[in-house]
Amino acid sequence: MNPEIPDSPEVSESSETSTPLVLDAAAVTRLLPPAAAADALAAALRDGLDPESAAPRTAVPVPAGELLLMPAASASWAGVKVAGVAPGNPARGLPRITGSYLLLDGPTLRPVAVLDGAALTALRTPAVSALAIRHLTAPGRPVRLLLFGSGPQAYRHLAAVLAERGVADVVVVARDPGRAARLAAHARDHGVPKARTGTAGDVPDADLVVCCTTARTPLFDGRLVAPGATVVAVGSHEPDARETDSELVRRSAVYVESRAAAAREAGDLLIPEAEGVIGPGHPAGTLADLVTGRAAPPGPAVPRLFKSVGMAWEDLAVAVAVYGAARTAQGRSA
Predict the structure, then answer these.
(1) Residue 103: beta bridge partners?
(2) Is the separation of the CB atoms in 186 and 161 below 8 Å?
(3) pLDDT tens-place string over residues 3-16
(4) Separation between Cα atoms, residue 49 and residue 56, nearest integer Å
(5) pLDDT (tens digit per residue) in 36-48
(6) In whole angstroms, what is the distance from residue 312 CA to residue 331 CA?
(7) Which pTM was predicted?
(8) More confident residue, 182 or 11
(9) E strands, 182-249, where?
């Protein structure tokens, strides 16, 4: 990765300490709001970071599921996330995603912080989506949000959307009706009185469709997505799994975090490509293209699809921002 993760004086001085700062899940969540996490990603891209050169994720199958190793480095910082994906954990009352993030001083590679990896992922993923939404949806008129999923990422994506755009109403679609109802009630408690549960049949009325599920097959008929609507899909980083169908990909202007990462891991795009549904011109652009102005959303007649697989440079950028916020808070309390 390029040496463009932003630095700050408050953070740099901590590299002289010998004991890494430990930031648990509550601290990671408290220290950095969703919009600030999106700002950290945008700043890295505007400073010239090239996601195409980022190190790929390493996935290792294990009996309980999968171990993911995600390293990234810049001149000022280095970091690595070791994450576990344990599909059986929810039945045990445990999180599906586990792990830790080790943040190091770039010049010396001395550890400066250990962050809760699941909390970092829960912050970073909706921040990436929020940054895409910031550029793919028009400001002003409140959006009608359709949210697929009822797990932690669904809650975090709701918060991220509320931080970016006014929301007229929310419809939650999930396999478990009780969990869907709880998320809809949560949305009402957080300023969206018109929040309810629904079905995939509500897709045509949505301005923004957010998919954050563990589904391996399409959640809805892509022909139902309204012209000009935006779909964000974050649930999968596997080449044989997808949340959206080939028809939506064919109709849409598609944007990704990185062409290289999408070509390795984005089943939402790889499966349509294997079917011969898409060819040259997909994707239309990347997140960096949108942030830097090299690409613009299409006209109102075309749906927009942002497909995210999650990348290590994003973890590093957000971890640095969390760490900076922690050091600033320590300075205030000293």
Answers:
(1) 79, 113
(2) no
(3) 355 554 333 344 44
(4) 15
(5) 999 999 999 999 9
(6) 29
(7) 0.91
(8) 182
(9) 195-197, 208-211, 230-233
